[in-house]
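Repro case for the chain-ordering regression, as requested:
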Amino acid sequence: MHVHLIAACLAFTGYIATPGVDHFGDDIRNNGSAWNAATECSNLPNCKGFNSNGWIKTAAAPLAPESSPVCFYTKIPGSCHSSLKMCETMGANHGQN
Ligand SMILES: *[C@@H]1O[C@H](CO)[C@@H](O)[C@H](O)[C@H]1NC(C)=O
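-- result from build under test --
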């Protein structure tokens, strides 16, 4: 996956990155890294977002300010139904897996 920096957050195609916020609770699991979480969240229809610590979540709101350098990624509705390839065609980035 091709990524680039927006503010302090990596950008993942199909997600809106917000620096310095997090959503507490509604965890599905921790997939270890933002990279794994992005892949896993895109595979799960009930995943609505994830954070840069690797937590994938069934809800992406409300977002609360976080003092640690965390980024929250909100899935863009309809952009990632079944595969990352689909996300790429909808997103602003040109990803390559
Ligand atoms: C995320 O974690 C689950 C459960 O351990 C695992 O089955 C899945 O392969 C992981 N996904 C990625 C992209 O690492």
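Ordering looks correct now. The helical segments are 34-43, 84-90.
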